[in-house]
Amino acid sequence: MNYNKNLDTEISNFVNKCESFYPKEGMLHSKEIQRESYNRLCKFFKVESPVEVLTYDFQLSGTKLRKYTPKSYSNKIIFYIHGGGWMVGGLDSHDDICAELSLNTNAIVYGIDYRLAPEHCHPAALEDCIKAVKYIYEIEEEKIILIGDSAGGNLVAALSDCSEVEKTYLLAQILIYPGLGNLENNGSRLNHAQAPLLSVKDMDYYHSNYFKNENYFSDKSARPLISNTLSEVPKTYIFVAQFDPLFDDGYEYYKKINEQGGHAEFNEGKGLIHGHLRARHCSVKAMAEFQKIINIIVNL
Hints:
Helix content is about 40%, strand content about 15%.
């Protein structure tokens, strides 16, 4: 597919700028180069944090967390789990996203710096998130809205379907272009195998670094899409991107939740690509998706 013809100017410019932070031969490099490139990309697109939101960093049994507190508090609690292929990202990479969510929803937001691959493989990141969500519920005594993008969406879906987490803790989950374990070589994986900012080759690289267990294929904590207990997950809102090999992950998960008796809603992200959340201040389409997320949170 000729993406230059299908993407509008704003998204095309965003893609070109993102790609400029990586070596010319592509994104598949050592973890050091991956992290350096991603950190520079995040720093470039980061917007100034609103003064109305206060931040506080702390540690929970060695795991770093950041709390965002708005001046006006609505009794809503968000736990945001960042993306980055389970290999890159942290508290700073999604700092402005968390701050803006807090400002625009009047919710307390927690971000997490979970352990990264390849130093720490599955289920290390999930274990950190389980520990954190239990702590947040104990401290705040309010139901929690889980939000995650990309690999973070995978962790959110696994967390919401985990037997170690009481379902009464959770109000809703919002998944943004999540990777949920679809392995079919057709549909979006075939049609968008060479999509900008995330190709199937990129996905396989990230998977090979994080999922080392031979039971991956049958492990619902790694592949939430194969779960048969999705009726128990909280109300679910799924945001995907039209030009993304992960489109079908989100769509099939949406269908399975509803087929199993749960409640899920689906947003197709027309004209958008993987990672568009970071383009919200340079793309009208991306900002419109971000505003939909805000509206959902406000109305929960």
